[in-house]
Structure formats: C-alpha cells, structure tokens
Amino acid sequence: MTARKLASLAIAVAVLIGIAVWTFARAPVPADDNQPKQRLGLMTSLPIYWNEAAGLGEMLADDQHEHWVRQQLEQRFELVPLDILSAPDRLEPNDELADLDLLLLAQPNALAPADFVALDNWVKGGGKLLLFADPMLTEHSEFGLGDRRRPQDMALLGPVLMRWGLPQFYDEDQPDTPRLVTYGDTAIPLHNAGRFEILPAETATCELLSERVIAYCAIGQGSALIVSDAAVLEHEADSAIAGEALEKLLKNAFNSAQ
Asked: How would you classify residue 174: left for phi > 0, otherwise alpha for psi between -120 and 50, otherwise beta?
C-alpha cells in the first residue's frame, strides 16, 4: 500500500471516530431508573389509590383494575396516602404532612377544623398544593347517597378557601353536560363545575384562570393551584384528554418538581 493510500485511510478513520464521538456526545442521556422519585401526599375520597369496593377483600383482589390516575402519578411520584393532616395534640401539620413538600387533595372527605389549620400552616410554610374541590361531583359510584364508602359529593372546603380569600360558587342553571375549558395550551375536562371569586386576604394573593374555574394562589412561602371541578380525575374520563390535562396541572402546581 502506497504512502498516499495509507494517509487517506488514516484520515478516513479519524473522520469516522470524530463523527462517532460527536454523535455520542449529542445523544440524550437515558433517565436513571434508580433516581428517587419526589414524594407526593395524596388525600382523596375518590377511588384513585384504592378501588371502590364493598370491603377490604374486594378492594385488594387481584382482578381489580388500577385507576389510570394512580398509574400516571406513580410514573413520576412516590405516593404517600394521607388520612388526616393535623397533629393529634396541636394545630400543626402531622409528621407525615410536615415531611412532604407536595400535596394532592382530590375531593377529600370532610376535614376537621384542625386539618384546615394544619393545611393552611403547611402551605404558608412552603408547601405546594394541587386541590380539586368539586361542588357537584359527577363521578359514578356503586354506593348510594349517604354511604360512607361513596366519594364526597360536594367539596366541603369553604373554611380554608375563605381563609385564602377564594369563595366558591355553583351555578345550578348550567347545562348538565361535559365541556372543555382552555388552560394555557391545554384543554381541561369539566362537568358541573363551580367557579371562584376573589376577596382580600391577609396571607394569600390569588389569580383566577380558565373562566374562573381555576385559581392560582401564592400563600405565604407556598402556593396552591385549585380547580373547582374533578371531572378530569374520573375513572371513565377520556385518557388522552384527561391525562394531558392532569399532566399540565401537576406541572404548574409542582413546577419545581417537574
């Protein structure tokens, strides 16, 4: 092989090595599956974490279908189910809540007065809250009105919403049909939604969005993104539309975690 051919071959090899190095450097770094997930507190009366069931055995049965919302949440977060928010002996967040930075309240059962105070203190201390407060829940339930196993039909969160200067109203004359509302570049499913107004508040500054169905409040050192409806979380919701809507709400509520 002549010197000219050897030189040409060396140049070609160098070019190929350079292209390979450049391509490797630009390739996206795969996600580390061992990276710990953000912990997200979850309090809800909806069958998101546990399926709606007549008893514990049925709830834990292998043939129970996992709610799509739980599946979506667990792709990004480590869920921490919560039953109460307050400490037993003081009006402060209990140890479980105090150890969390993020909280999802989705149509919770009626809270005790101490839980309202604990929630307010937790958000003011820097917590980030995504709250679904539906004044007229449309989620189907196998259990009749008054059954404790039934999801909370009407959100009973007035004390803490008023604390943040955010009274909630419900228009009984609105059409009883599902609809969409625009939130940024995303469509949010609604069905018999409520709306918010703003009153002066000492510790909160709120902004109304999406036809006053959604409110964002800066509260002390923390924040709350509040939706006056829970149709986006329904078991039978359109998974494409509802999934995108939930992702948008999670991102805006917990922006530092996304």
From this structure: beta
